[in-house]
Design goal:
Blueprint (H helix, E strand, L loop, with lengths): L4 E2 L11 H13 L10 H21 L7 E4 L2 H12 L5 E5 L4 H12 L3 E5 L9 H6 L5 E7 L11 H10 L3 E5 L18 E5 L11 E5 L39 H17 L1 H20 L4 E4 L11 E5 L4 H12 L1 E2 L1 E3 L4 H7 L6 E4 L7 H20 L5
Helix pairs in contact: 1-7, 2-7, 3-4, 8-11, 9-11
Length: 392
């Protein structure tokens, strides 16, 4: 395992900070009860763990009230809560051509039920022109929902500009921050974001099974819950509570996961998002510059680390993405993600559909030596194809 190079952080960050493992083990060994369901000391301690997770995320995203942070099992669930909870037949929703299927599939399902959908096209590098989106707004537009950064090439969309446009037109604005939470500064108030979906297991360094939705003031008035059930509050009523966070959090939460998530976010805050971004920019720049010097290797996206997060995609002429990934894994112990990355429309925008790409996504624990080794491996594979020889 020591020689393994992990470049799949866009899927799930690994390894985690040591404090994440310790926090999860400590909870399971010394608390382990259900929060908000009992009055004994272990339940109270579990409730404290959950509230601490809300508090530290509120600091990260500049949210005044921690109770406005709703926990889900991932960003996908949060995005489904938004689309299904806000949109009704006859209403209009706008999104981009760079979206993950966590946005596109729910919207396509709603389109079949009578919701009007507009997909605003992005450039071949993944950029979105805010004016194109504003031109798509109609009198019945209810929601704008956009990824903050592409999970295929890392390109950043102009969230702050779109937030201003949405506010001016009195349209709800939802941001999919799966690739940016913890990796890029996010201020819900400054960016005019009404609904922010985040993943806990990527750049927040939490475990899988954690994520959530941040709801700006008033959002609970227009967002219906997706799941109803026991909340530990108002148990005498057969109707779902209307207050936050209970309106959207039924059933026993993943408290051990939230203990780990809190430790992960503490790690992010202790290092500073800007400082973490500087490190990832350096790794990404080295990857980009190295790849650009290798013959027969195509690089997609902006090529500018200032305009993206630490995610990039390549292809090697003469090999499929899956073949390249197999060589990287089996011959060089390099882990990456081939294919369409659950974003077929993004690949159509980039011109890489249906074959897809090889995605490389370094993270905080990636070293410069890891990057150099990866570039050497890619060069050997590309040369091997050109010469018709072995890639081993």
């Amino acid at each position: 395992m020591e020689s393994l190079i992990y470049l799949d952080n866009a899927a799930t960050s690994w390894p985690k900070p040591e404090a994440v493992y310790q926090a999860m083990e400590n909870f399971m060994r010394h608390a382990g009860a259900s929060p908000g369901r009992s009055g004994h000391r272990l339940s109270i301690e579990a409730g404290r763990v959950v509230y601490e997770a809300r508090e530290i995320l509120a600091r990260l995203f500049n949210i005044d009230d921690p109770l406005r942070i709703i926990f889900t099992k991932n960003a996908t669930e949060a995005l489904n809560l938004v689309t299904r909870g806000v949109l009704r037949p006859g209403e209009h929703v706008i999104t981009s051509s760079m979206e993950h299927n966590s946005v596109m599939r729910p919207l396509r399902a709603l389109e079949e039920e009578g919701v009007e959908l507009t997909v605003v096209g992005c450039s071949a590098e993944g950029f979105l022109d805010p004016q194109d989106l504003e031109n798509a707004i109609k009198p019945n537009t209810r929601l704008i929902i956009l990824t903050h950064a592409s999970n295929v090439v890392g390109t950043l969309l102009p969230v702050a500009e779109i937030g201003f446009i949405a506010r001016r037109h009195k349209v709800l604005f939802c941001v999919d921050a799966a690739q940016t939470a913890g990796a890029y500064p996010i201020d819900m108030k400054a960016m005019n974001i009404d609904l922010l979906a985040f993943a806990g297991h990527k750049s927040l360094f939490g475990p899988p099974g954690t994520g959530g939705l941040c709801i700006a003031k008033g959002g609970e008035d227009v967002l219906d819950p997706m799941i109803r059930g026991g909340t530990g509050s108002h148990s005498e009523s057969e109707y779902q509570p209307s207050f936050l966070p209970d309106k959207y959090e039924s059933g026993t939460p993943n408290t051990v996961g939230l203990a780990g998530l809190t430790a992960g976010v503490q790690f992010v805050l202790s290092r500073g998002v800007d400082n973490l971004r500087i490190i990832e920019e350096k790794l990404t720049r080295d990857l980009i510059e190295g790849i650009q010097s290798i013959p027969n290797v195509a690089l997609y996206g902006s090529g500018d680390v200032r305009k993206q997060v630490a995610v990039l995609s390549i292809n090697i002429a003469g090999l499929s993405a899956s073949e390249v990934a197999m060589h990287l894994d089996e011959d060089y112990d390099i882990m990456c993600r081939p294919g369409l990355q659950c974003a077929p429309l993004a690949h159509k925008t980039l011109g890489t559909y249906p074959s897809g790409t090889v995605r490389l996504s370094p993270g905080h624990f990636t070293t410069e030596d890891n990057i150099q080794t990866t570039l050497e491996a890619i060069a050997k594979i590309a040369v091997g194809v050109e010469l018709g020889g072995s890639n081993g």
